[in-house]
Amino acid sequence: MSINLFDLTGKTALITGGVHGLGMAMAKGLGQAGAKIVVNDLSEEALDKAVEEYKSVGIEAYGYVFDVTDEKAVIEVITKIEAEVGPIDILINNAGIIKRTPLIEMEVEDFTAVITVDLISPFIVSKNVVKGMIKRGGGKIINICSMMSELGRDSVGAYAAAKGGLKMLTKNMATEWARFNIQINGIGPGYFATSQTAPIRVDGHPFNDFIISRTPAARWGDPDDLQGAAIFLSSKASDFVNGHILYVDGGILATIGKPSNES
Ligand code: GCO
């Protein structure tokens, strides 16, 4: 009998911040592969809207209001989710923020805020979800990294420090937890067409032209381009893949690029 290595039927997946953009696209992929979807946000209204959207495409979805940086709240809500929806089999640490400010002008409190959400919260949520996974004998954790896990760019220093740290946190989680049949990996999205990048994607905008020329695939990513990677790293298909960062970037990291006046 053949088994479908990518089937997620009966699994429960928590995607932090999965109320729009890349998190929602990945959650929809998991939902379409059979998983029940749990998302969180700070706003009840954003959650209700997202849950409606999941349900409209036939996905069983639940929303919980909590702050991923507040360990006490995280512990309480995990207990609630596991009682009300099911044990968390898959965790995607997707919630994140960015502040684009040159380092020399950046206030320590803004730097700290980025590190807290983008690096410390994956630690807080994973640490508390993994305890149940260890008891149950397995699980999947995916940390959403970035091009900035590998590359610098003017004005995104705090974000790069956090995402570079998240890459190493992923490897260390694998080091400590792989022995419990838990696979911890990262996905590193390249430049994607989301509402956040809309203003810089318009035709003729220098950043739009820069990204297209810097990306071997010569286009922005479509959020749905992340679904295959998310399903793979959530499913049986990746049961011996650990501590890996899967870059979904149209080839950006493969090349040094070329001068803008050359074809
Ligand atoms: C930027 C972008 C990036 C993306 C993404 C790239 O200002 O350069 O916002 O940082 O958010 O993480 O992988």
How would you describe this structure to a colleague?
Helix 1 (21-32) packs across helix 7 (227-234) and helix 4 runs parallel beside helix 5. The mean pLDDT is 96. The chain is 40% helix and 14% strand. The protein is globular. The chain has a single domain (12-192, 221-251), classed as NAD(P)-binding Rossmann-like Domain (Rossmann fold), CATH 3.40.50.720. It has helices spanning 21-32, 44-56, 71-84, 108-136, 157-177, 206-214, 227-234, and strands at residues 12-15, 36-41, 61-65, 90-93, 139-144, 182-189, 245-248. A 7-stranded parallel sheet has the order 3-2-1-4-5-6-7, with helices on both faces. It is α/β, with parallel strands linked by helices. The site of D-gluconic acid has 11 residues, from loops.
Write the layout of secondary structure elements.
Elements: E1 12-15, H1 21-32, E2 36-41, H2 44-56, E3 61-65, H3 71-84, E4 90-93, H4 108-136, E5 139-144, H5 157-177, E6 182-189, H6 206-214, H7 227-234, E7 245-248
The structure holds D-gluconic acid.
D-gluconic acid binds at residues 98, 100, 146-148, 153, 156, 159, 189-191.
List its traits.
single chain; about 260 residues; alpha/beta; Rossmann fold; 7-stranded parallel sheet; 7 strands; about 15% strand; binds D-gluconic acid; NAD(P)-bd_dom_sf; EC 1.1.1.69
Query: Helix and strand string, N-terminal first?
Result: EHEHEHEHEHEHHE
Extended strand count: 7
Q: What portion of residues belong to β-strands?
A: 5-15%
Instruction: Trace the largest sheet across and list its strands.
Output: 3-2-1-4-5-6-7
What are the low-pLDDT stretches, counting only 5+ consecutive residues below 50? none
How many distinct helices? 7
User: Could you say how many structural domains there are in total?
Assistant: 1
Termini distance?
Answer: 51 Å
Most strands sheet: 7 strands, parallel
Ligand kinds = D-gluconic acid
Q: Specify Rg, calculated over alpha carbons.
A: 18 Å
In the CATH scheme, the class would be Alpha Beta
